[in-house]
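[Discussion] Sanity-checking designs against the backbone

I'm trying to build intuition for which residues belong where. Below is a structure token string of 311 positions. I'd appreciate it if someone posts a full sequence so I can compare it with mine line by line.
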């Protein structure tokens, strides 16, 4: 099953307590595509400038990512982002965002993308997310990501509501969901979002995992316990890549399928944060996903404990 993604392709400058990386390949769509393409075929919609080296795009091509929906603007500059993480790496600071070629981008999907069943609207201008979803004839499952940069600006925030109405899953972290809904309690906030259209709200909690809230139930997944974490950039997009990639691979969008896909998301994100930029994802292999899935199951399972009385 193929999976269409729209989002940023970027040059990132990243600073964490464990080092820094400059002008590396980043962007929500890069992380997402590298994460999902181990599980299913990915078709990417984005724009880059003349400055994007072919070697960076080759990293995506080598994973079989279809770049026929990628536009290159000959006299344009690629999106840029700079960020810094505190010692508590759940706390991120954006130092700089330069939209560059994304400011005037009009997505026009190749014919081969328009029948896609699975769609992920990664972090980018909400109006571009809407432009993409409108061109896909009958998507079966659409996921949506956003961030404070768009929620905090009244103009782009207003563009989010029509997108939220049309998606099946919304991915947000604690701060984003509170900022968007104005509710402090995360479960109340998630329920509020559910009334606006989506089937499930996926709350990302960084090194503490993720929680799904839907009308079918609640599901909590732990983060995979790692002894080396260098750079949390792209963890959310990689979580979404593992999640959407698994949904597309299995073709199972039931609540059970969603729960299993969350475990895939958590495991896939663990590869992303072990190294700077996309280096960890580039090393990830399908068999390792299976291995970590099983380990995480053992670390978190407590069905057996429930067989005996709690007291
Ligand atoms: P994450 O850590 O999962 O939130 O994703 C980080 C990636 O998102 C980086 O590689 C950035 O290039 C990209 N990014 C950061 N801010 C934005 C933004 N406002 N719009 C689109 N992409 C962004």
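Best answer:
Here's mine. Compare freely.
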């Amino acid at each position: 099953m193929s999976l269409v993604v729209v989002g940023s392709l970027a040059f990132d400058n990243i600073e964490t307590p464990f080092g820094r990386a400059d002008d590396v390949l980043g962007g929500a769509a890069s992380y997402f595509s590298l994460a999902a393409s181990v599980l299913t075929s990915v078709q990417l919609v984005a724009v880059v400038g003349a400055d994007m080296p072919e070697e960076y795009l080759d990293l995506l091509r080598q994973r079989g990512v279809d770049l026929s929906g990628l536009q290159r603007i000959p006299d344009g500059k690629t999106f840029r982002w700079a960020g810094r993480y505190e010692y508590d790496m759940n706390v991120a600071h954006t130092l700089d965002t330069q939209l560059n070629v994304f400011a005037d981008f009009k997505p026009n999907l190749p014919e081969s993308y328009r029948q896609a069943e699975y769609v992920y609207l990664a972090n980018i201008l909400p109006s571009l997310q809407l432009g993409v979803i409108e061109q896909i004839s009958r998507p079966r499952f659409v996921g949506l990501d956003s961030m404070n940069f768009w929620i905090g600006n009244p103009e782009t925030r207003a563009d989010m509501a029509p997108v939220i109405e049309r998606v099946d899953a919304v991915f947000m972290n604690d701060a984003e969901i509170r900022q968007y809904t104005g509710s402090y309690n995360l479960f109340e906030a998630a329920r509020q979002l559910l009334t606006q259209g989506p089937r499930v709200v996926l709350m990302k909690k960084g090194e503490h995992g993720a929680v799904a809230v839907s009308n079918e139930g609640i599901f909590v997944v732990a983060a995979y316990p790692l002894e080396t974490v260098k750079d949390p950039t792209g963890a959310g997009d990689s979580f979404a890549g593992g999640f959407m990639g698994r949904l597309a691979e299995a073709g199972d969008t039931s609540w059970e399928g969603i729960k299993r896909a969350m475990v895939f998301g958590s495991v896939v994100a663990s590869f992303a944060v072990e190294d700077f930029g996309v280096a960890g994802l580039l090393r990830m292999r399908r068999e390792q996903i299976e291995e970590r899935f099983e380990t995480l199951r053992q670390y978190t399972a407590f069905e057996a404990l429930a067989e005996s009385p709690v007291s």
